[in-house]
Each structure stands twice: as C-alpha cells, then as structure tokens.
Write a structure and sequence with these properties.
Layout (H helix, E strand, L loop, with lengths): L1 H28 L12 E4 L10 E4 L2 E6 L3 E5 L3 E2 L2 E8 L5 E9 L6 E5 L2 E5 L1 E9 L2 E4 L2 E4 L6 E9 L7 E6 L2 E4 L16 E8 L3 E10 L2 E4 L2 E2 L2 E2 L5 E4 L12 E3 L5 E3 L1 E4 L10 E4 L8 E4 L5 E5 L5 E8 L6 E10 L7 E2 L3 H14 L1 E2 L2 E2 L7 E3 L7 E2 L9 E8 L5 E3 L3 E3 L4 E10 L24 E3 L18 E6 L6 E3 L8 E2 L4 E2 L4 E3 L4 E9 L7 E3 L11 H7 L9 E2 L5 E10 L6 E11 L12 H4 L1 H22 L7 H11 L1
Parallel strand pairs: 22-29, 39-40, 42-49
Antiparallel strand pairs: 1-4, 2-3, 3-17, 4-16, 5-16, 6-13, 6-17, 7-10, 7-16, 8-9, 10-11, 11-12, 13-14, 14-15, 17-18, 19-20, 21-24, 23-27, 25-28, 26-27, 28-29, 30-34, 31-32, 33-37, 35-36, 35-38, 38-40, 41-44, 43-47, 45-46, 45-48, 48-49
C-alpha cells in the first residue's frame, strides 16, 4: 500500500515538473500565440549561407541572437529609417561585430562607390557600422565612443524637408557620424521618407542581445507580460507612387479623379492585414473629399480645385479609431509637362546601366529578328510634379547608322543589326502634358544645337559629361554579333516513328543571327550501335548510281527534318549551325525511335440492312396502314337530314 502511494506521489511530482517545464518553454518559444504577437523578428544565417534558419531566442526583456562563425542575423521587415534606434549588447567573448543598414540606392541605377580606384554602381546599399570595442567606423570615418558593458545604441536620422536640406546622420552611443555629403550612402527617398532593414554580423560569432527597437517615439521592448510581448504601434506611410517627390512637401493631386490609396505599414512586430486599414476624414473636410473603403483598392477623390485637405489611415474600433498616419493633400491643375532632372552622377549611372544592358555575360546580346535591348529605368533622369514615374506614358525614338528615326511605346529597342544606335525618350503625364519633339530634334530630324548624346560606357564617371539643367538629352549604344551560336534539341523530345509512314521531327531551338543550317540523317539498328548516314533524295541519281539509289531512296529523306523509316531502329538527326560571315558554329542532335507499322483494326462489315430487309418491308406496310386508318377516322360523315333535302330540291326543278 505504501509502495503504491509512493508511486502515485512520484508520478504527480513528475507531472507537475513536466507542466512547469513546458510552461517555461512556452514563454521562451511560443510567446507569439496572442493577437498580432510574434517572436519571429530575425532570420539568422549560419556561416554566411543563404538558407534562413531562426536562431533568435526570446527571453524576458531581450532577444538573443546566437551567431555562428561568419554568421549574421537580418531583421525580417522593412522599417522607417528617418528616426530608427536599436539598442543591443555584445557577449563578453565578442571583440568585434557589425551593425548594417540595408536599403535601396537613391539612384535607381545605383549609387557610385569607389572601389580599388574604380567606380562601381550599387543598387542595394549596405551601410556598415563597424564595432571594435570603443572604436567605431561609419562611412570610412573612425571615432572613439563611450561604451559601458559592451552595450551600444545606434540611432539613424534621415531628413529631406521641402524647405531645407537633405541630411543623413548615424549616432553611436552619442557620437555622431555625418553621411550627408557622402552621396554613395544616400537612400531612396519618397515623401521625405527612407525605409530599409538592419542586420548584425560577426566574423568570429557570438551572441547579440537586442534590448529594444524604436521608430521615432514607437519603442518596442521585449518584456513579457503574462507570457506575451506588448506590441508597439507601427508606422504607416502611403505607397511610393502616391507622393509627388522625394521631399516631405504636401502631396499634390489632380481634382475630380480617383486616386488609389495603398497604406504601407512598417511594423517592428507582426504587421496587420492590409484590409484592416481604412481611410478616415474629419467632418471639416468631408465636403471636399470623397473616398471609398469598400473596394479592394481604397480610393480618394478631391471634389474641388485649389483645396487643401487632410485624411487619416486608421483601424476602426468599437469606441474610437486608432490613428496610424495623417496626410495632407492639395488639389491643383497640372499644366506642366515632365522634364529632365538629371545630375552628372545620375547620367553616369545610366550610361553604365545602358552598357550592361548591351551585354550578356562576356559577349553582346544576341542580334537579329525578335531580339531587343531593354532600356534601364530613367526614374532618376526625369520627373513630373503630379504623375509618378511609373504612371508616365512615353515614346522612345531610335535610329541606326542606316535607318531613320523610328518610334516605339515600349522600353525595348529591336536590335536586328550590328552597329551604333541612338535614342531619346519623350514622356507624357496623366494630364496630357507632353515633352516636345522640337526641343530635341529639328525639322530634318537632326539633334538641335546643345543636345548632349551620352554614350553607354563600362567605366562611366560622374565628371565625364556636362548636364544642362532642364534640357533633354539622348543616349547611344553599340552592339555587335559576337554572341556564340546556341543549338538545343526541341523541348519534349521526339515522338515515335513507324515504318513506311512519313515522319517530320520537331525542329531544334537555334539562337543565332542569320544562321546557316546543315541537317544530316543517320540510322542504327540499336541506340548505342554504329550509325550510318542516309543520303538525301535530292542527291540521289538512279541512272548514275543505281545501287546507292536503291539503298537510300526508300528513306525519302528531304535533307532536313522529314524522312520515311524503312527499318525499325533508331534515326538520328544532327543539325550544325554556322554563323553568317564568321567561323562560329554549334551543333546538336536528336534521336527518333522507329517501330513496326502499327496494325490497323478494321471493324467487321455491317450487313444489318440486308439481314432485316423483310422486317423493314412489313414494318413500312404496317405504318402506312396505320396512317390510313387515322385518316379515315378523321373524315366527317355527311348529315343524314341534309342529303334528302338536297334530293327534293333537285326534283322540283
């Protein structure tokens, strides 16, 4: 009896211990069970690999990131960089670490960096805060900072005001690094905002403890309340297309037409669903604004010209709305066409991007019918006061040395021939204001005086060409036929062939300019056996060589893809392609399996009519008799009283 009680006590103790252990595990790992709560803040990469694996551990008060050798941890969501602050601590054994800001370049074709005395253009910027104890390096500048207990606070401040100057500063533990003049680090800007991610890296590994992350006044710590994190309010902006430019100026929109409103949430914790956000308008502005929250895409329309109105992005509540952002919009007419707004660095970046567009690896792109050069984006070269770049219409005019100007509404220029191409682009905004052709070429379609033509260049430098403010410009590039010839078997292979039935093989996929093709047909009884070439019918002469004629005529080979199998086995077609006027060549082969002629199944002769002719005769007679009976029944008999009366009348006469 005592033993039984002891067993029960031990079982109860083990059960309680298991529950407690699972509870602790739940706090550490499953603290994301509440609404809008998650511990999935970082993706940790081991040994610099590209495969993501979560190694972030949530403790009461901090996130611990365990980094292996050459490991890194990247925050999973974009945040607003205007006033970003991250506080973290390095493990005692760590001597060095990197804090990285990751964002898109200001120039759509890349910011210019000098590396090994050469200019390189980068579209994805990695702005590194390199930490080595009290020595911190940012943007190539090293300073000594005050450090206590290996704890660092990195604060980012980006500003681009309408009536002020752009600035970009990073502060580490109160020590400021000014990157404003270092344009290679300038982020993409819209409406005065910059967005991006941050990451940690450690060459020798170690644990990074993240204490807090803040966007302005919205500071997220990781203290657990009832086993959960209390999420801080996220920042909500609008999609980049809604803003007119890069500064924080009031947004200008055309009146009387609907504009899409797409909220863009930047959340430290898990983001809300897009449908959660609504447009809200104060009573004082409702007479000037019409808006739609019910459609899949929210829209807003200003009902009068010259009005300045405000609207909010909110999440509706039972008692009151939670406001995530407020935006000012001015309505105005647009009478100004898009214009050139290029800088020397933007022109240089475009020239480099244009050169890269002409290349396919170590050779030029392919030439010939159906081949095109896709122009790089000109977002950094042109702008409009009202219409976003992606919503502008455009006409691309291009010419070669041997052809006059041709227009296309595509950003792809056909490259049929080798040589030099020149082009310029005219943009048109949503109001119909368009750039004029007369501002770049004269009546003879020649460039007017002062128009710059910038050539694509592998090593373009910002100081290479002069830029005239507000004046349009043109570009040129060269392409030549040095791409290797490519020949591959048709996708899906070949269908089976049959003896005595003409067969046409699926053609090869050939990539070459003006290719010269040479086909050959071979036969072998087995797939791995020795193949014998079959001579085309056009080369056979029965009178001149009857033996050869009798041997190969039965194949009816047309010298290309069509032949008639004469024996079962394997038929191989080899295509060799030569370049016109060059020594280039390439070949490929395809194999067809020929089988015996399939037996045709002929159904038995159908003699049903002959076997049933008398049945059909009697059926027809019976049918006619039935019809006669029906007709007789339908005839109305004469009235008995009417007949004698007619007879008496006749006798009186």
């Amino acid at each position: 009896m005592k033993i039984g009680i002891a067993k029960k006590m031990i079982s109860m103790i083990l059960a309680v211990a298991a529950i407690v252990a699972f509870g602790v595990f739940s706090v550490r790992v499953f603290a994301d069970e509440g609404d809008n709560i998650t511990t999935e803040y970082f993706t940790v990469y081991e040994n610099g690999s590209t495969g993501g694996k979560d190694e972030a551990v949530l403790t009461d008060g901090a996130l611990k990131l365990a980094l292996g050798e050459k490991g890194s941890a990247e925050f999973k969501r974009n945040l607003v960089l205007n006033a970003l602050e991250v506080k973290f601590q390095l493990a005692a054994e760590m001597s060095k670490a990197e804090f990285k800001l990751l964002y898109d370049s200001y120039d759509v074709n890349g910011n210019a960096f000098i590396e090994e005395e050469k200019t390189v253009y980068k579209k994805e910027i990695e702005n590194v805060v390199s930490i080595d104890g009290t020595s911190v390096t940012v943007g190539g500048e090293t300073k000594t900072v005050a450090v206590s207990d290996k704890t660092y606070t990195v604060a980012v401040a980006v500003a681009n005001p309408e009536n002020g100057a752009y600035s970009f500063k990073i502060t580490v533990n109160g020590t400021e690094f000014d990157l404003t003049e270092k344009t290679q680090y300038k982020p993409e800007m819209f409406g005065g905002n910059a967005v991006g991610k941050f990451a940690f890296a450690a060459e020798n590994g170690g644990t990074v403890t993240v204490d807090s992350i803040a966007q302005g006044a919205n500071k997220q710590d990781f203290v657990l309340t009832d086993g959960k994190i209390t999420p801080v309010k996220s920042v909500v902006l609008l999609s980049e297309k809604f803003y007119n430019g890069e500064t924080d100026a009031a947004i200008e929109k055309l009146p009387f037409i609907s504009h899409s409103v797409v909220p863009a949430e930047y959340a430290i914790d898990a983001p809300h669903t897009a449908s959660s956000f609504k447009i809200a308008v104060a009573d004082e502005y409702k007479s000037s604004i019409a808006y739609d929250n019910e459609s899949s895409t929210k829209t807003l329309r200003i009902k009068e010209n010259g009005a300045e109105v405000k609207f909010q992005i909110v999440i509706e509540g039972e008692e009151e709305n939670e406001v995530f952002g407020e935006f000012t919009v001015k309505s105005a007419s647009d009478t100004v066409a898009p214009s050139a707004a290029a800088t020397q660095s933007a022109i240089a970046a475009y020239r480099k991007a244009l050169y890269e567009a002409t290349r396919d690896g170590d050779h030029y792109i392919r030439l010939g019918s159906g081949n095109y050069l896709e122009l790089p984006s000109m977002k950094s070269l042109f702008n409009d006061g009202f219409t976003a770049y992606d919503d502008l219409d455009y006409t691309v005019w291009y010419r070669t040395r041997t052809s006059d100007w041709t227009s296309t509404s595509s950003f792809k220029i056909p490259v049929n021939n080798a040589g030099k191409y020149e082009f310029y682009v005219l943009f048109e905004d949503e109001s119909g204001n368009k750039m004029e052709k007369d501002d770049i070429v004269n009546d003879k379609n020649e460039f007017i005086e002062g128009i710059k033509v910038y050539a694509a260049a592998q090593d373009a430098e910002a100081g290479d060409g002069e830029v005239v403010a507000g004046q349009n410009f043109a570009f040129s590039f060269e392409v030549y036929d040095d791409a290797p010839i490519s020949v591959t078997e048709a996708k899906g292979g070949q269908e089976k062939a049959y003896i005595g039935i003409s067969y046409t093989a699926a053609d090869f996929d050939v990539k070459a300019k003006s290719p010269i093709k040479e086909y050959q047909l071979f036969y072998s009884a087995t797939e791995d056996g020795e193949y014998e070439e079959i001579i085309p019918s056009s080369e056979l002469d029965e009178e001149e060589d009857k033996e050869t004629y009798d041997k190969y005529a039965k194949y009816a080979y047309d010298g290309s893809l069509t032949f008639t199998p004469a024996e079962t086995g394997y038929y191989k077609i080899i295509l060799t392609v030569y370049g016109e006027g060059s020594m280039k060549s390439a070949s490929a082969e395809t194999v067809i399996n020929a089988l015996s002629t399939p037996k045709r199944v002929v159904p038995n002769e159908n003699n049903w009519f002959l076997n049933n002719v008398w049945s059909l005769v009697f059926l027809s007679i019976g049918t006619l008799a039935l019809i006669g009976i029906i007709v007789i029944l339908c005839i109305k008999p004469k009235d008995a009283e009417t007949a004698p009366a007619k007879k008496d009348k006749k006798s009186k006469k």
